[in-house]
Amino acid sequence: xxxxxxxxxxxxxxxxxxxxxxxxxxxxxxxxxxxxxxxxxxxxxxxxxxxxxxxxxxxxxxxxxxxxxxxxxxxxxxxxxxxxxxxxxxxxxxxxxxxxxxxxxxxxxxxxxxxxxxxxxxxxxxxxxxxxxxxxxxxxxxxxxxxxxxxxxxxxxxxxxxxxxxxx
Length: 168
What we know:
Number of helices: 7
Largest sheet: none
Radius of gyration: 21 Å
Protein name: DYH5 protein
Strand content: under 5%
Oligomer: single chain
Distance between the termini: 76 Å
Mean pLDDT: 92
GO molecular function, one term: dynein light intermediate chain binding
């Protein structure tokens, strides 16, 4: 009876975790003119969310329940282990992406606040940094991630040029 109750608890956790994982993989809805700092903020929020989830999974309470179910040879543990692995991967991806996107953070200010001429001076360094991210990142080097980043950088450049033209 205790095992059945604990299995039900794990099934509920599994359902909740699956929901978080599915939501994290859904396409983000963003404004058409959002800049690159939104990309960093997205991954910081995702990192925080998955790190909290990992902390909860590694808590002594959860570990006790899992060890009881291991002793009882519960079949619910197979799904649990798969989810645990998926959460770890998602947390590692978010952490890695935040680390790499922080290397771009120094360019976000000039992209947003400089004149078009001054902004252009930063483009070669920005492109070199993006190239480094693409070549070395384990997770951020997909065409979807790069396209999204370039779109946001372009949006920021366009917004900066519009502001410059409206002020002048």
